[in-house]
Amino acid sequence: GTGANIAWNIALLGVTPTLVGNIGPDGYEYKKILEQRGIDISHLDVKDTAMTATGFCCTDRNGHQIWFFYRGADAVGHWPEMKKEPSIKI
Questions:
Q1: How far is CA 79 from the centre of its chain?
Q2: Under a CB-based contact definition with an 8 Å cutoff, are residues 23 and 31 in contact?
Q3: Confidence band (pLDDT; 50, 70, 90) for 59?
Q4: What is the three-class DSSP state of 77?
Q5: How confident is the model at residue 2 (pLDDT cuts 50, 70, 90)?
Q6: 3-state class (DSSP) for residue 46
Q7: Which stretches does DSSP call E strand in the chain?
Q8: What's the burial of 72, exposed, middle or buried (CB within 10 Å: 0-12/13-18/19+)?
Q9: How far is CA 10 from CA 27, 42, 47, 55, in A?
């Protein structure tokens, strides 16, 4: 999702971002990839009771769009307790 995309690009700039969120059991492989790319995933919580949240955009021939969202793991998750303040050194 958006947070992972932003974290990925921040990591490309040489900074270690922290990704905060909830994923379902379908996100284990992606979680490993994010960690390998230098993203702090210590606040990425896996919820085994729901799949990862998803958004779908449908566009008709006239360019009108409607979005559909599945809240998934975000619906059963919570905001984690952040023990340390993140620091950014550029």
A1: 13
A2: yes
A3: very high
A4: coil
A5: confident
A6: strand
A7: 18-23, 40-46, 54-59, 65-70
A8: buried
A9: 20, 17, 26, 23
